[in-house]
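Below is how a single chain appears once it has passed through the pipeline. First comes the sequence as given, then the structure the pipeline wrote out for it. We keep one example in the README because the format questions we get most often are answered faster by looking than by reading.
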Amino acid sequence: MRYDLDLDKIRLEAKSLIGTHDFGGFMSSGSSVKDTVRTIYDVDIQENDGMISIEVSGNGFLYNMVRIIVGTLIDVGHGKTKPEALKEMLEAK
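Resulting structure:
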């Protein structure tokens, strides 16, 4: 099944993740981590022959953090989630 994604919208949304933030809202339950502050250095989004890759680099990740980030970015690219969703999730913690 083929899905059309707005990669420009995804790239713009991903920029809100760069920097040091409390990513507590991006962690699945079941983790015993007390400090949820992490630094994201870069989010690289590439398309090659119809395959999209999303690479997140940072100083550490919470349980399922990248999975939740990527899922939210995909929803933004499909128009299912409004732009600035990640920014709002960061602010809500």
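The CA atoms of residues 63 and 73 lie 18 Å apart.

See the next section for the split statistics.
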